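hiii so um. not sure if this is the right channel but i have a protein structure encoded as tokens and i wanna go backwards to a sequence. like what aa goes where. can anyone help
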């Protein structure tokens, strides 16, 4: 939690946090409730079949979703571009690469200048209007580690490779990613350690080890709070009495 949240917590009746590990940062623990993030509720309801159809994917292949947020993440995009020739050779998997609007034209220009990349198993989009559908189709997600993103992937039980942004207050994305990593739901890769070969190797290692991927999926779901919205609503009703 940031400084503002800590200050405001002094005047609040209740403090809602996304993870158990966040509680220790507040002085008055009696006020703190682990509710999860309300966004989780919004991504429930879409099936894998619906997600596959929405994106035009092959239902018999593993699906890897690579995303850096609505505006994109420069470091993730830099590495993803260099990964494209390698990803195109992984015939038993398919990739949905969401660049973010800021970087989409650059990615398209990069591809146009390189013939015979063979990107038949890679879909490249600037953004996705129906991100819940894309998530429902994913067997593995590669992304930053914002609280909303993690709420979405855990409620759906999706394994992940998390690359926390170092450019955030109190390094909170690293702390978010650490919760999932230590809980067995994610692989944590620090931005300074990120290379295209490292990421490609991790992708191959995970999608070829179905047992590991399944175990990560179970761990991811255990860290979710699907009733977050109802829990927060109940707390508000109790306070209003």
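sure thing!! here u go:
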């Amino acid at each position: 939690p940031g400084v503002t949240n800590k200050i405001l917590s002094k005047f609040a009746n209740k403090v809602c946090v996304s993870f158990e590990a966040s509680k220790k940062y507040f002085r008055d623990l009696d006020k703190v409730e682990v509710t999860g993030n309300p966004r989780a509720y919004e991504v429930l309801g879409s099936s894998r079949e619906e997600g596959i159809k929405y994106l035009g994917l092959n239902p018999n292949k593993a699906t890897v979703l690579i995303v850096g947020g609505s505006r994109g993440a420069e470091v993730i995009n830099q590495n993803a571009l260099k990964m494209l020739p390698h990803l195109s050779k992984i015939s038993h998997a398919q990739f949905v690469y969401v660049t973010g609007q800021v970087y989409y034209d650059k990615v398209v220009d990069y591809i146009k200048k390189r013939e015979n990349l063979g990107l038949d198993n890679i879909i490249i989009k600037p953004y996705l209007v129906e991100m819940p559908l894309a998530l429902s189709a994913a067997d593995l997600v590669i992304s930053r580690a914002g609280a909303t993103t993690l709420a979405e992937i855990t409620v759906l039980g999706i394994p992940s490779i998390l690359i926390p942004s170092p450019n955030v207050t109190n390094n909170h994305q690293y702390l978010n990613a650490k919760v999932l990593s230590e809980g067995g739901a994610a692989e944590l890769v620090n931005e300074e350690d990120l290379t295209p070969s490292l990421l490609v190797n991790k992708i191959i290692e995970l999608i070829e080890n179905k047992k590991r991927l399944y175990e990560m999926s179970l761990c991811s779901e255990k860290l979710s709070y699907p009733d977050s919205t109802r829990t927060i609503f109940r707390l508000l009703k109790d306070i209003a009495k």
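oh and The beta strands are 15-17, 32-34, 62-67, 93-98, 122-125, 140-143, 160-162, 186-188.
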